[in-house]
Amino acid sequence: MSTIRVAIADDHKLFCSGIQMLIESQPDLEFVGAAYDGETIVELALAQRADIVLMDIRMPIANGITATETIRARTTSDTPKIIILTTHERDVAVLQAINAGASGFLLKDVNPGFLLEAIRTVHGGQAVIAPRDSVAVIKDLIPHQTKRADNAAISALSAREKEIFLLAARGLSNSEIATTAYISETTVKSHISSILAKLALNSRLQIVAFAYENGLLR
Predict the structure, then answer these.
(1) Which of 49, 59, 163, 183 is deepest in the core (most CB within 10 A)?
(2) Exposed, middle or buried: residue 212 (CB in 10 Å: 0-12, 13-18, 19+)?
């Protein structure tokens, strides 16, 4: 069984050491290195072929948002996925990081077990969605919408995909969407993949942000 290769970017070396010990305690995870600024993590993540990067937002030289954009700009199949680590969930930088391509975000004081499962979840192709509370955070970070809904923003989607898009934007899990739409979870995953591709989005959290930014949810 192949291991999940994990790197971390944070300017607090002691915090990085703690994450390293946590990762190395798991048989299915492999720690491939730490970087202490937003420039070095790009080089490290790509050179070490990291599967997952745990990314702080505020770092020297380049911040985590810029680093995320740079890493995600590589449109190869082995581009590392990003999980943002933050001390304040209602920080506008969290939304910027999601729009830059992060697959999710976690508070730095999260339970270690939840962090480990988040790594596995993202590696498995899903976003870290602390379901409805993440939706609430994103909703709070986006300026209040006064304009009419921009339905043209999702005109590329089929009628069924639009239905799935709105359910995902409300924070429903694959199983909840499957139950609501009377389809299988496999079909839900297929629709989500198509939606992400058609709208040029990288994650389920970007679906949430996209929906609110275009007035499709209020």
Answers:
(1) 59
(2) buried
Which tens digit of pLDDT belongs to each residue from 159-190? 999 999 999 888 788 888 999 999 998 999 89
Q: Which domain holds residue 91?
A: 4-128
* 167 and 111 part of one domain: no
Same domain, 116 and 8: yes
Distance CA 22, CA 7 (A): 12
Tokens of 173: 């899990």
Q: Which residues face 6 on adjacent strands?
A: 31, 52
**Of the candidates 67, 82, 93, the residue with the CA atom closest to the CA atom of residue 118:** 82
**Do 91 and 118 reside in the same domain of the chain?**
yes
Please write the tens of the pLDDT for every residue from 66-104: 999 899 887 566 789 999 888 866 667 777 888 888 888
Whether residue 157 contacts residue 165, with contact meaning beta carbons closer than 8 Å, is answered with yes
